[in-house]
Each structure stands twice: as C-alpha cells, then as structure tokens.
Amino acid sequence: MAQNIYDSEVFFRGYSELDRSVAGLEGAAEWPAMQALLPDVGGLRIVDLGCGFGWFCRWARGRGAASVLGLDLSEKMLARAREAGAREAGADPAIIYARCDLQRLALPEASFELAYSSLAWHYIADPAGPFATVYRALVPGGWFVFSTEHPIFMAPSSPGFVSDAAGRRRWPVDGYLAEGARSTTWLGAEVVKYHRTIGTTLNLLIGAGFSIGRVEEWGPSDAQIAAHPDWAEARDRPMFLLVAARKR
Amino acid sequence: MAQNIYDSEVFFRGYSELDRSVAGLEGAAEWPAMQALLPDVGGLRIVDLGCGFGWFCRWARGRGAASVLGLDLSEKMLARAREAGAREAGADPAIIYARCDLQRLALPEASFELAYSSLAWHYIADPAGPFATVYRALVPGGWFVFSTEHPIFMAPSSPGFVSDAAGRRRWPVDGYLAEGARSTTWLGAEVVKYHRTIGTTLNLLIGAGFSIGRVEEWGPSDAQIAAHPDWAEARDRPMFLLVAARKR
Lengths: 248, 248
Fold this sequence. Notes:
Two copies of one chain form a homodimer. Chain A is an alpha/beta fold. Chain A has helices at about 10-15, 20, 30-35, 55-60, 75-90, 130-135, 150-155, 200-210, 220-225, and strands at about 45-50, 65-70, 95-100, 110-120, 140-150, 160-165, 170-175, 180-185, 190-195, 210-215, 240-245.
C-alpha cells in the first residue's frame, strides 16, 4: 500500500500552505504545460488519479466535462475537496470523490475519455498494474495525461543544489539508474517516493498498450521567470515530467 | 553542415584506439542492449546512419541482411570500412559505403526495413528534417533503432564527476533545459555536440510520424561491471540513450 503521508497532521498543514494548495491550478508552475497536453474536456468522462483538493475536478466540470471521478488516498484531502466544491458552487452530483490507493487501483472498463493525474505516480512503487488498469478504463482514442517528479530531481542520494568554485548552481546526480525508494524530508515529514527513469515510465506505458503522444521535461517560460525569478533553477535541473499517452 | 571531427588527424588516431574501434561491436558497452532492440535482420534492407568503420554493416550482412547502405561524413572512416570489409570477407557488393552529412540526409522513399544509427545524432544540430527523411525511407512496419549520448551526460557546462565530502561520486548537472551546442575536449580535439532533452528527441520522432517502441537509458549489467569495474559509473549518470521507434 502507498504511504499516506498527506493524512499526517504536520504534513497536511504544510501542504495546505503551498501556492498550489492556496491558489489551485494557477498556483502550480507546470499547469499551463499540463493544460497544453489535455484534449478539450467538454463532454468527457474523466478520472483524476490523486485528485487532492479537487481543483482539477472542478476546473474540468467548469469547462463542460460530463463527469469527474476524483480519487485520492488521503481522507483529509477528500474532505477538503468536498467542502471546497460545496462552498464554491453547491454540491455537484457529477463530481464524485472517493478514496483509493493508486497501487491497488480498480476502475470499470472502457468508461472514461480522459485519465488525469498530477504528481501522484512517484508515490507508487510499481505502476505497471495501475497503468494497465487505466488503459482498460479508457475508451479507444482516450488520453492518459499525467505529471510526476522528474527522475533527475528524484535520483540523488542527497538532493540539493551546490555552488561550484565559479558560483554556478549545479545539481549533483548519483544513482540515476538505481531505481527504487527514496526517502526525503519534505514539509517536516519523512516522505517515501519511488525513483524511476524516464525510459522505465515510458516502457511501462507502452507495455500497457499506450502510444506515447508527448513527453515534456518541464521548465518555466520566460514570462514565468520574470514573475517568479526563483523558478529559473528548474532550467538547471527539471522538477517535473509531463506525459500524454493515448489508447489507440 | 555537421562538424567533421573524425577526419581530423589527431582525433581519428585517438578514436581508432578506442575499444569500440579495435574490438568492434563487442567492444561497445551498449551493444548488447542495442542488439536487444533490433528486429531479426535476416532479409532486411538496412541503412546505417553514421556507420563509422562499418562494424554494424558487416555484422548485419553476416546475419543475413539483404543489403546495407552505410553512410558517414568521414572519408577516413569510410576508407577504413571499405578496407576492413575487403580484408575480412572480400568485397561484398551488398554493402555500399557512401559519404553523407546526416544534417542533409537524403534517402529514397519506402526502401528500407531498418534504419540503424549508433552515437551519431548528438552531432546534429536539428534532427527534425533527417528524422522525417528516415520515416519516409522506411516501409510501413519498419524500425528506426538508434543510440545517442544521454542528455544528463551532455548537459553540464563542465561535465565531469566530483566527489562529495563523504567520498561519493556525483555528476553535477546544470543547464539541462538549455538545449543547443556543447563544446568539449575529447581525444585531444574540440568537439561540438548538441544537447537535447529526452522529451525533445521523442517529440521530434513522434512529430515525424513514428511510434515510440522502447526507450532505454543504458546502464551496465552486473556481469559487465564484474568484467569492467570502471563501467559502474554509468549507473550514477547514464552515458547513452537508446531508442526504438516504428513506422506503423
């Protein structure tokens, strides 16, 4: 079973204060790039794998999605998602929030045109089974669009920038091909994530039957850096990997 | 036009002494992994993009390939390829070696079942046009299998391992998302290579019409490390990216 760090008190409090938790999708640096990978969501049946506070579920419904199934492991996040939805727009019967461990994902077959997932897969030790489940859950022509932490960000035994003698910011990498668990401290908690190469992630998708449609190693735009100069560091080592895959 | 470093005297002499130049395919650490990506070459019409000394051309003919067109920018390498072929097996009329700048690649349409390329694309500033040419040159169902230097290896402004305070070997990365030319010293020569992310390489292939079949961020096997302990460093930062793409 995946670690349920989001239900720990101290972590949840810290996570709730992040830009992406307060401002929603617009607070997430990679959202414009994710949006560019999405099909028009109008009329689609969508499943959101790791829906968190439900920002994407509500955004998709606002853009005309037929229905959204929001799945998350964290009871706290699902409770917050339900509250936020009720407060913003009254209860929306076409958004269903439900608890789910992605490692044990079960979905009805051929029932969705889009599977969406933001920054969830790096918590999953073995996505082969869940990817196959997502493939079966999509209709032919359906899309699976997700982000995950970038392996250059995940790999190091001691992740962090260092400055070289010339004052350049550099990100020392080791163990890139040593896939598996990485334990790091984030928001005051010990968080276990699973490092996989880009190749492994793509080969698992291909093995599940998907065609790879687009692979983005995300970096900030010039306009984003002008507004948030500290985001520039992502150009030295990317933090997010975005993938769009299709069921043919 | 791509830089023709292989025809410079000092570089050619140095390159000729590498394991992969002396021992051929068996001297190349990544060859077993490349071979695993290849279809059975029996009866295939093959083009080898950046054929060097022609080791792969002769190997493929030895395995029953119908014909091999070996292309390279370097006159010195083509001359050596022709000599080696004549010495080993007499002249083989089904192997044709010809000079070609991959940046200006021209090939007949629908004429090959396999396009192969070993460690050539990182010398090419813009592979979009050549990838489209390869796509058109393949028959439906044909494969494009190639290796290139890995972007983690290519990206840094000062590539090299450093040891941290604990004595761990680490590879500092900067400028990973700053694609473009990288000038490095190799075998006593100033070599210009072009850094691209994995995402960019795959998206160019997809844009040319290819389906991605397999993506390998190559690392040595346990048996290889037992025989060559110094190869273990590739597990800390991969040196080669291997891709198999298909024309559907």
